[in-house]
Amino acid sequence: MRKTSTTIICVTVLLTSSALGAEVHGKSSQQTDQDFVALQKTLIAAQERGDAEYVKNAVAEGFTGIESNGDITERAAFIRVGQGEKPGQSPILYDFKVIQLEEGCAVVIYNAVFPASPRERYQHMSDTWVNEDGHWKLKFQQTTLNLWSAHD
User: Fold this and answer.
1) Residue 111: which domain range?
2) Looking at the 3D structure of the chain, how many domains does it have?
């Protein structure tokens, strides 16, 4: 009887700790929408302040960007951040939405107002983030003019 009780207790402890470990692991690997919005805002802030090293580390190899005029931007051009350039007024970012495609991939969609760019002032932005070796990296960006607002 004593042997059976000890076995039951050991099995119960083992199963409980395994279930708890899986639950904690699942929560830590799952990013929240707020995490992706913060990641996006951090990248934009690094671009504004001219932090080329941060931008370089945050952008994935094989990055492709599509500009508002349809031109394609490769990684080398995108990560080029002018040191010492004094940026104009900061963009206004709003209406963030996050679509998680799978555990290692998410799309962050948001609207932006760029006060220093009168012609391309209002834009819709879509950024695709991928998890590479435990680090989130920007893999794709598409910019679309918000024509309804652009010509007001």
Assistant:
1) 31-150
2) 2
